Amino acid sequence: MIIEEKPRQQETPAKPAYKVIGTRPVRPDGVEKVIGRAKYGADIDLPGMLYGKVLRSPVAHAYIRSIDTSAAEKLPGVKAVVTSADLPRLSSNEYIDMGEGGGQLQDLHDNILASRKVLYKGHAIASVAATNPHIAEEALSLIKLDLEELPPVLDPLEAMREDAPLLDDQRYTESLAGRSSKPSNIARHAQHAIGDIEAGFAQADVIVEREYRTSMVHQGYIEPQNGTALWDADDHITVWTSTQGAFSVRAELSKLLLVPLAQIRVIPMEIGGGFGGKIAVYLEPVAALLSRKAGRPVKMTMTRAEVLEATGPTSGTYIKLKMGAKKDGRLIAAQAYMVYESGAYPSSPLGAGMSCMLGPYDIPNVLIDGYDVVVNKPRTAAYRAPGAPAAAFAAESLVDELAGKVGLDPLTFRRINASKLGTRLANGNVLPRVGNYECITAAMESEHWNAPLSAPWRGRGVASGVWYNWGGLSSLTASVNADGSVTLTEGSTDIGGSRATAAMQLAEALGIPYESIHPFVADTDNIGYNDVTGGSRTTFATGWAVYEAAQQIKRQLIERAARLWECSETDVDYTNGVLTCKTNPDLRLSFKEMAEKAHSTGGTIVGCGNPSPKQFGPAFATHIVDVEVDPETGKVQILRYTAIQDVGTAIHPSYVEGQIQGGVAQGVGWALNEVYDYDEQGRLRNASLLDYRQPTTLDLPMIDTILVEVPNPTHPYGVRGVGEVPIVPPLAAVANAIAHATGQRFLKLPLNPDAVLRGLGKIK
Amino acid sequence: MVKVWIPALLRPLVNGQVKLAVEGSTVREALHNLSTTYPNLGARLWDGQHLRPGLAFAINGQIAPLGLSQTINTDDEVEILPAIGGGTLSPASHR
Amino acid sequence: MSNYVQVETTINDEPITFLCEPRQSLLEVLRETLKLTGSKEGCNNGNCGACSVLLDGRLVNSCLVLAVEVAGKSVTTIEGLAHGDHLHPLQKTFLEHAALQCGICTPGFLVAAKALLDHNPHPSEHEIRYWLSGNLCRCTGYDKIVRAVQAAAQEMEAVAR
Questions:
Q1: What global pTM score does this model have?
Q2: Smallest Cα–Cα separation from A527: which of A485, A493, A486, A477?
Q3: What ipTM does this complex have?
Q4: Can chain C be said to touch chain B, i.e. do they have 3 or more Cβ pairs within 8 angstroms?
Q5: Residue A304 sits at the chain C interface (C-beta within 8 Å)
Q6: 20 to 30 Å CA-CA from C72: which of A36, A183, A344, C66?
Q7: How many CA atoms lie within 13 A of A404 on its CB side?
Q8: What are the chain A neighbours of B53 within 8 Å (beta carbons)?
């Protein structure tokens, strides 16, 4: 008999009576988007604009002997051709932090235009700008490439072998202990440890060990990468692009092109999805180089094949995991060997995968060794909760097996082992107040979990997951207009509703209607530095900045009222958008009335916020899914899905639900179909959306959400960040459901019909 | 004295010890003092006056947002950790 | 230079004459020549549906239609859904139901959903999903899109009564 302890943690305070937070207004940028007027990166049109195209490597691994562009340059209509020789030589090879992910500058440089070697099929080699895209394409076919082909290394475990061909003979294994003596495809070895692993397993009554594999998968945003640049004669560069971080693009360009930050203006256009994939630059520096040569603006957009072959997917993984539990169901030890493939340059989200894998559990003895390995595939980029979904696939599949072996249902097993306030994780962190326990409890009490599931070949699976979220830097200004409206100028690119959530938090803080706030996203010349929109940080940190700006506005309103009323500032109260004089109740002014008097009582009222939040609010989730497996075709249909998540405080519940539903959809695609299918030469066989096969309307049911609200105690409004954790549990939840339906454990994703039929022994 | 936890990969540089007591009012001071006692560890941590990239610190289980400049008090426990990218509890600690 | 062809057509109820090369797709001419950039390019091979338009009332991917093919026909793009400041019911319900996040697929979904409701004013959830299965969205998981189409169908029925 298990006696469950309810975690001792501070009580959750009653939710404040918010007026705007928790409502579902129409987003401020909505109308332009439904009438087709919103301007995305590819919609830019400038006088004299040229069109740029990229010549890409036809092979996965080769030395570049020579590139002859002379014939292309002579084609009528061609205005500029560039190769890596046109990129300035770097003065240093520093690490550049791009927010979610980062990399060595030299690697980014070589990824943009290959110099000595090409390291994957699709690696950019040269680029042409012409008066129309068709001429540019024609010119690419006139460039003569002389390549010396090398054997590609595609499997990370093979790439780790001492006799494997090296991608870079100057690459050594880095770790806390220093660098390896010999060059290697293993770019990094990291370790997390807590307790005593051997003693831990010695105490275990049940031990399970398995090997899990996942494939590279792509973020799958519908808008391909694009970038338009104008390099003026005075070395000022203007860039219009679709990015998660205009300031990140500016910093990357400055370091790659050796142009000072203030001479680069990055104008973020509306962005058609990113999910982590639109942080590193690909086209922008190339467009800038072409523009410098041609003296005209150059627009570049990628084809879908280029997006799939040459922009960041996330790592494929190999994870060997061993976990031990006591008879009573308590987890006592876990050991993992994790290999994350980085593609051509070190870039994998290994550290986050290691941190998140066992985050939902309180385990006293843990040892995790992780390896970041380069292979002849595109350089990886962040993808929603980078590194965590594949890690959770391993941990949550194995936890499910362990629960069965100790005779507990999977949710009870998770709850008795749930990490909580004070849990020390193997990465050295101690958890603050989190909602893990509350999510599992909500799952146990959900209608879905308690609904019958009878038919044969149907199964139900659950899985949990964590993403620790991020704070980062946000900077904004809020200007009070003379009619009582407020212009909110922010620098967080809005990837799915953050203008609305920023405006809502400002309206809440000022006690004025949401409709009075007019938010817009400024370019890098018009606002202070902001980190990327990523790490689930925007509603959290930009919301925090909004709160700070509102406090400044309030102080100014109070000052002005005190001056008008000739009373002390301490005698002025500001509540719900109304100023009153505590000593004379007849004196009152609404926000709007005070705004009208602003110019005559001391000038413009402006608030700004530049917080640097130090403590973030980790987000936990537990998902439940029902599937039906067709034993004849191997097809898995998702019948029902419920995602339970601690969202802290839901600012705009519809967009919180939307984030969760979107994360689930991507996770289901990862579980069932999405795969980077390479042939032996390293050519991607499925470089189109039809063949990559991300989920369509017919692959998913309605996705139910249960929003658990355990406010983040460090944020003014309890915000945690919601965007990333929903992609963490689905891989394992679906695999666990399939195991329940078929009696077979599947250890390798995706579980497409072919894999399911093989697992069932129907085909070989 | 503060206590500094040494990750397994660095223990060979400090005679296999897991936890070391050291004086210091900031992370930087504590690490400098440790480096004086254990020059091999020092060589691994520092490149001249700069911390080598890839390192982060937690103080009593919370990531130190100011990195080396973070002030510490007697009895605080400092952990040396591998740095992780944004979104994962660790700011760029090597700044 | 290339041979240009003169094409006379109707776009969003307005007669228009444009010049194009025979190799240019309708999508390229809409976006680059006519500056109607509401139709989006996600794949340029008919996989994603972001460039959906109506050609004589029939739903097509404008990236798979040559511009010269629309001579004498009628094209409806996303820019033709609203009348002045009067939004189409689908545009309203997409906003009210938060059926868009990044918004890049939204024009295609709206045009495809309009084609569905023009053809079948009372679709079931499955019929909606079947009809919209040629349009990819990566942000929403489709839940709120399907609900927005259901809500628009109800609203249009109520108005029709």
A1: 0.95
A2: A477
A3: 0.98
A4: no
A5: yes
A6: A36
A7: 14
A8: 95
